[in-house]
Write a structure and sequence with these properties.
By secondary structure, this protein is an all-alpha fold. The protein is built from one helix and no strands. The longest helix is centred in the middle third of the chain and has 43 residues. The radius of gyration is 20 Å and the shape is rod-shaped. The chain starts with a helix and ends with a helix. 0% of the residues are buried.
Length: 45
């Protein structure tokens, strides 16, 4: 029983880390997509 509990807690930790990592990536991509059109517009003018 203890082993199972430990494994579950580890899985939860991994899931939490993965979610944090994914959200960070998502935020980074959002910033990039926000910035890129701005630069493209500047180049055109």
């Amino acid at each position: 029983m203890l082993m199972k509990k430990e494994v579950i807690s580890m899985n939860v930790k991994l899931m939490f880390l993965r979610m944090r990592w994914i959200s960070q990536l998502h935020n980074h991509n959002h910033l990039e997509t926000k910035m890129i059109p701005h630069f493209q517009r500047r180049k055109k003018f």
